[in-house]
Design goal:
Layout lengths: L1 E3 L13 E5 L5 H11 L6 H6 L10 E5 L2 E13 L2 E11 L8 H15 L5 E9 L3 H9 L3 E6 L11 E7 L13
Length: about 180
């Protein structure tokens, strides 16, 4: 389990410790419960099988605060036009634990892991955000993501159905080595 303490400490909560744990068959039930609580869509059995793959271990984690599971993030590596991109499928933190820098620390973990990943070298990270979710769009923009388009009818069972596509370039002259500011 990876722990982050100093970056997660606030003046009002000095003993908060954020840590990340790899997904296993033993904690996959916790991921299922978190996903059903956090997201308005139901994920398939294939999704849960894929997030256990050793290829994405650095990019699929349970998020803990003081040893209590409070969120999760899951990514997959995709090949697009001779480039490897990381698709951020899910990232969420339970409502009572938001505004404590947990989402920023989680996203920093994903960005840092993607920057050092070599086989394959990841050129960018992208994701979809439902058009009605302005807070999520602003969160990702604060962390270096930019809207690159709109996916029409992306969501099949929720309204609005359209989604922004946001992307963060990792390996370009301007993005290489830029620190993530929390």
């Amino acid at each position: 389990m990876t722990s982050i303490t100093s970056a997660s400490r606030s003046r009002n909560r000095p003993n908060e410790r954020v840590s990340f744990s790899s997904l296993t068959n033993n904690n996959l039930g916790t991921v299922r419960v978190l996903n059903s609580t956090l997201f308005p869509v139901k994920y398939s059995e294939k999704f849960y099988k894929d997030v256990l793959s050793p290829d994405v271990e650095d990019f699929c984690k349970l998020i803990y605060m003081n040893d209590v599971p409070v969120g999760t993030f899951c990514c997959r590596i995709e090949k697009q036009d001779d480039e490897s991109k990381l698709y951020l499928m899910t990232m969420g933190v339970l409502a009572p634990y938001r505004s404590r820098n947990i989402g920023s620390q989680s996203l920093k973990h994903v960005l840092d892991a993607a920057r050092v990943h070599e086989k394959p070298k990841i050129s960018s990270i992208y994701l979809h955000v439902q058009l009605s979710n302005e807070d999520a769009r602003r969160f990702y923009e604060r962390h270096g993501f930019a809207v690159t388009g709109v996916a029409k009818e992306y969501y099949k069972k929720i309204e609005p159905r359209d989604a922004w596509i946001l992307e963060h370039k990792l390996h370009s002259p301007n993005a290489e080595g830029d620190p993530v500011v929390l």
